[in-house]
Design a protein that fits this description.
Elements (H helix, E strand, L loop, with lengths): L5 E8 L2 E8 L17 E4 L4 E4 L7 H13 L3 H8 L8 H13 L3 H14 L4 H13 L3 H15 L4 H11 L5
Antiparallel strand pairs: 1-2, 3-4
Length: 176
């Protein structure tokens, strides 16, 4: 078990303090919950295990989530390859994740193109607005990034993760 999946619990045993490690789901810690698999495999959410990607009957939503996990793990080319296998590539989620992976590969303008397509499909999707704003920060377009921040505030307030992350990116662009 990884340290991010553990928490400590204090127990009093025979008058002594004992610490026990208890499993905590990754989502409870605010982390991405889809594990990554070795290259050539994909995580099957239904079976809850890694399976061979070739011939796997995995739904698009599962594929998109897995691609995002790969991208968050820095495996951008693999993430794009998984996104290439979705049957319906023109969804807000798939386009957002494609934008994220391409931006992280240094292809910021291409990423912005995908983000804008995603926004067109779902203007209320806060995560794409965050990533679009971060791309604008990279491009030095702080005015456009602040517009995205204002939209995020209307969508989910100043306490949501997307608002906090874009706000931090505007305050410290080197952290993107």
């Amino acid at each position: 078990m990884t340290t991010t999946m553990l928490r400590a619990a204090a127990l009093i045993v025979g008058g002594s303090l004992a610490i026990a490690a208890l499993p905590v789901p990754a989502h409870a810690l605010g982390e991405d919950t889809t594990p990554t698999c070795p290259k050539g495999q994909i995580y099957d959410q239904k079976a809850q295990k890694c399976v061979q990607q070739q011939g796997a009957n995995i739904p698009d939503d599962n594929r998109a989530d897995y691609a995002y996990s790969l991208a968050k793990a820095g495996r951008y080319e693999e993430a794009l390859a998984v996104l290439d296998t979705v049957k319906e590539p023109n969804t807000a989620k798939v386009l957002n994740y494609r934008g994220y992976a391409t931006r992280k590969l240094g292809r910021t303008d291409e990423g912005i193109t995908y983000y804008l397509q995603s926004v067109k499909l779902d203007p209320n999707y806060a995560k794409v607005r965050e990533y679009l704003g971060e791309a604008y920060v990279i491009k030095g377009r702080f005015d456009l990034a602040r517009e995205q921040l204002q939209t995020i505030e209307k969508l989910c307030g100043t306490g949501c993760e997307e608002y906090r992350d874009l706000s931090e990116a505007l305050a410290d662009p080197s952290g993107i």
